[in-house]
Write a structure and sequence with these properties.
alpha/beta, Rossmann fold, seven-stranded parallel sheet, three-stranded mixed sheet
Length: 298
């Protein structure tokens, strides 16, 4: 597969989201892109349509794809619903994925964006794709981790049922010009608020810049298989949350302060060796990426 997708018909779910928006805009430069969302923000829809994206209003929780073309080349399931209501979140994140795969069963490949929030917390251990799953995010979002795990199971089953080559990519702290978790920390630092950190310090993660996410998509689709390929998706250089907050504070001239609490997620560090094998290493270092994020959001 070429390094850049061209002249393909691609469905993207959740195209107004933090991760999906820059991905959708990048894909729309050389492909026919169809975005599925509720499009409650008219400005966000206008931005996508100005870039050539066909926007189709879709309620993922309802699972009705009758107005969506089924003859497409690729499906990128990047939507995430975090209502904290079990009925909605299981339907929108898990059931809808299987129904969409059924609708687009003739596609070349499916990329389902999961999260490293599916792993059982394991301190400083670098989590491999075969490590234990658990209710990682319960202290912050009750439904998130379980809905994400449920979605993976539905996607794995659907890949086999419909013989649809699939990659399940577990994303770890995506960020960039369009925001992300470090952007929330930046806002707290600028407001003089302490950043919550888990007592099991340091809180280590693998942040990945949106440029690397966009660059790796063709390879992630190329890696799709039946049964589904499962791969961690994060930066090759782990970094402590405390370190990136102090770095952000240095950029804006504010001291980062912290408060230890069990009411936040602990570090999730992942083994990226399988990702590197399939898609190559990430190329945007976290310091450069954060500088760019701050500049873009100044």
């Amino acid at each position: 597969m070429p390094a850049v997708l061209t002249d393909q018909k691609i469905i993207v779910t959740g195209p107004t989201g933090q991760v999906a928006l820059p991905v959708t805009l990048a894909l729309a430069e050389h492909n026919e892109v169809i975005g599925l969302a509720r499009f409650r923000d008219p400005d966000a829809r206008a931005q996508l349509e100005a870039a050539g994206v066909t926007c189709i209003e879709t309620n993922l929780a309802a699972g009705d794809f009758s107005s969506v073309p089924s003859a497409v080349d690729y499906v990128l399931n990047l939507a995430v619903v975090k209502s904290n209501r079990w009925d909605i979140d299981l339907a929108a994140n898990a059931e809808s994925a299987g129904l969409l795969m059924q609708h687009c069963a003739g596609a070349k490949a499916m990329l389902h964006c999961s999260s490293t929030g599916v792993y059982q917390p394991a301190g400083r251990h670098e989590l491999a794709e075969t490590d234990a799953l658990g209710d990682n995010h319960r202290v912050m979002m009750e439904t998130y981790s379980i809905a994400k795990i449920a979605a993976e199971v539905v996607v794995r089953t659907s890949a086999r049922l419909f013989n649809l080559p699939t990659t399940i990519a577990r994303l770890n702290v995506p960020y960039g010009d369009n925001g992300g978790w470090p952007a929330f920390h930046l806002a707290m630092i600028e407001a003089g608020q302490p950043v919550p950190v888990h007592p099991d310090r340091p809180n280590r993660f693998n942040p990945i810049h949106e440029d690397d996410i966009i660059r790796m998509i063709p390879a992630m689709l190329e890696a799709a298989s039946v049964p589904a390929t499962i791969v961690n998706w994060g930066g090759i250089d782990p970094v402590d949350l405390e370190e990136w907050c102090e770095f952000l504070g240095g950029i804006v001239g504010k001291d980062a302060t912290f408060v230890e609490t069990d009411a936040t997620i602990g570090g999730v560090t992942v083994d990226t060796s399988k990702m590197v094998q399939l898609a190559g290493p990430t190329t945007v270092g976290w310091q450069d990426g954060l500088r760019r994020m701050v500049a873009a959001r100044a």
